[in-house]
Please model this.
Amino acid sequence: TQLLEQSPQFLSIQEGENLTVYCNSSSVFSSLQWYRQEPGEGPVLLVTVVTGGEVKKLKRLTFQFGDARKDSSLHITAAQTGDTGLYLCAGAGGSGGYQKVTFGTGTKLQVIP
Amino acid sequence: EPEVTQTPSHQVTQMGQEVILRCVPISNHLYFYWYRQILGQKVEFLVSFYNNEISEKSEIFDDQFSVERPDGSNFTLKIRSTKLEDSAMYFCASRGTNYGYTFGSGTRLTVV
Model:
């Protein structure tokens, strides 16, 4: 069973601060995805990283895939109240094109004005 | 932007009853999935479906569960005899040839 651990589980910061969320596993993934989920809604894909060491930027969000494709991080610069939400990492693995994703435990972020 | 549509948004059913959860994936996607999320817990994989057959299923997806793509557009999840512990949000997802998954907004199933 592939497990993805996220840390921290909860994070409360002031607006304008920077933060990093980590996603770690002992398994190798073919790709790693980051989602944001609002209460009562489905996960919404933010980014997919595929290559070990890959870095992707989405405005103030920077995503990195570990060299060994077992871990990833999400860094938010100058957090805003609109960044508040549940952030999920998800690893895709398995053979064949139908690869399922395994979700991490989630990081609940609260940005205080 | 294309989206995955799920109906109903909320279903209440009595224990032992059959329920069918419906999904309309993105039209040119090839891979289809059902996931569930029990309140306060993480999103769990149930089943993947490709080329009109199940390609992988989890331990949760026992004989009480089945999936079907009856008409080339809908993708359904059936639970034959619901149990209290089946209460959860059920998410449908689809994927094309790239890595990105698109999830629906979910169906909240409450078994009483």
Q: What stands out?
A: The mean pLDDT of chain B is 93. Chain B touches chain A at residues 4, 30-31, 33, 35, 42-45, 48-50, 55-56, 89, 91, 93, 97-106, 108 (CB under 8 Å). The two ends of chain B are 36 Å apart (CA to CA). The longest strand of chain B covers residues 88-95.
